[in-house]
Amino acid sequence: MEVVLKNLTKEFVDRKGNKTVAVSNFDTVIPSGKLIGLLGPSGCGKSTTLYLIAGLHKASGGQIFFGDTDVTNLAPENRGIGLVFQNYALYPHMTVRQNIMFPLENMKLPRKEILDRTLQMAKLVDIDKYLDRKPKELSGGQQQRVAIARALVKMPKVLLLDEPLSNLDARLRLQTREEIKRIQRETGITTIFVTHDQEEAMSISDEIIVMSAGEMQQKQPPQEVYDDPANLFVAKFLGNPAINIFEGSIRSGVLFLGETKLDNSYEGEDRKVLVGIRPEAFIPDDKGQLEIVIAFIEHIGRDISIIGHAKGLESKTRIIIPAEHKHLQEGDTVRFNYRSKYVFEVDGKRIR
Fold first, then answer.
1. pTM exceeds 0.85
2. β partners of residue 13
3. SS3 312
4. What distance in Å separates the CA atoms of residue 208 and residue 45, rounded to the nearest whole number?
5. Are 33 and 190 in contact (CB under 8 A)?
6. Which of 18, 253, 278, 329 is a good FRET partner for 73, with 20 to 30 A between their CA atoms?
């Protein structure tokens, strides 16, 4: 089921009449059968967007379509959605079987169909061995799978997941996100996944939508967003360790970091700019353009993490290079080149 958002807007008004725009003129198409991640920091509007799609919030403006059907003003129960929250929302007094069956009983389906579909979903999420247990007897990951089975058993048109892994420890997060991806591929259901965790979004999503201040910043497959950020916000939000941002300038069409010339392919008037280089983009090179004094070295298995100071620049530089360069020491002055860089206006707009 394709989901189309047209100029979707949500304003909240407090008791004093002050307005807060949580989602602003949001336009996008979520393709049928894909898993799309809504990614951004807390307060960026991603959960609000999900709740608008679910019908839990009423839109202040714009439209929501499921296929050709305008669902903007439909009640949640009439939209054909499955919704999974981060706190699971399981009924503690019910068994796993009863929790999964509950939506179907409300739909007053035949008993045999209810039992058959419950078992089918339990097998899909690999909890069929625990059907007679109560939620308190399950691990966090197992409880989350029960919640997903309960959402899927209704055979929804769209599955909505609101930070479903945030209550799990690191190992279970990894395991459960792999399960979610497997389940989505096996069912082919259009899925929208809200998270603030970039690694989670990039590993699980067919496309990610990066949001800030209620607006979409970029929508592309995860690796393309990482490799080709649309603006400074996206470049800084994605990446761990974070991208290095240096103050630079364009003079007579030439890009400079301090007094180091990088290249000369720029148009327009002389101006200050920002230059981004990801830590893993640095390459040790005796003829490299950047001269860096190493202040700190951390060995992290197959890689070395370096913090240094580039000649003529005030900001610290973080570098990730292969462990084969383990001969480097704190205090060494090393020249580096780089595989790629990004140039931005001071307002964050990308210069290409």
1. yes
2. 19
3. coil
4. 14
5. yes
6. 18
Beta strands in 60-189 (DSSP E): 61-66, 69-70, 81-84, 158-162
Q: In this predicted model, what pLDDT tens digit does every residue of 79-133 receive, in sequence order?
A: 999 999 877 789 999 999 999 999 999 888 999 999 999 999 999 888 999 999 9
| CB atoms inside a 10 Å sphere around CB 200 | 22
| Surface-to-core class of residue 335, CB atoms within 10 Å of its CB (0-12 exposed, 13-18 middle, 19+ buried) | middle
Report d(CA 154, CA 101) in Å as an integer.
Answer: 9
For residues 343 and 260, membership in a common domain is answered with yes
Q: Are 192 and 158 contacting, i.e. CB atoms less than 8 angstroms apart? A: yes
Q: How would you classify residue 301: left for phi > 0, otherwise alpha for psi between -120 and 50, otherwise beta? A: left
Q: 293 is in which domain, residue-wise?
A: 244-351
Q: Cis peptide before 241, with omega less than 30 degrees from 0?
A: yes
Domain C-terminal end among 231, 255, 283: 231
Give the 3-state secondary structure of residue 127: coil
